[in-house]
Predict the structure.
Amino acid sequence: MSSRENILKAALENQPAFVALPQINLESVINYENLAAQFDLILTRIGGTVEHFEDEASLLARMASHSPEEFVINTITADAEGLANINKMNSVQLEAVDVAYVRGALGVAENGAVWMDENAMVNRLLPFICQHLVVVLKVNEIVPTMHHAYQKIEVNKTGFGSFIAGPSKTADIEQSLVIGAHGPRSLTLLLQF
């Protein structure tokens, strides 16, 4: 028997006993008095920007306010042909995107994260490679904690999704925070009331 086979056999024979996941009482975890205010506070602290909108017209006007020189992809108002074109784009093409609009599925007040599923992204690369990411979220889609979020997420329906919290950042080198290191340089959340 080879060393590899010995290692695999030993690993197979030393599996931990199955332990059921703990049951979490969602009433006993953190609950914020004002979910939107907590979400705004945390997202702003981690480098994001929050803008509030009360009607669809204001939101559409915001989306249409870009200069013609900007390469803007709007997955929210794109028609079927537009969505198909976005889905076909490769990383080189998407790297040139200045602003990308994507709808968030839910927000988490405790950490300012937004869950986006693959259907909303249209192209998996888009929210991670664009220069500036703009996420649209309805205020009633904010939940208090990650425990509440995982109760609502059904990733098996879309196959892929991701929590995104603020712009890309790193402090790997000399603990100096760099925003926009390997992803969007900014994240703006358009919160619809």
Observations:
- The mean pLDDT is 92.
- The CA atoms of residues 24 and 59 lie 37 Å apart.
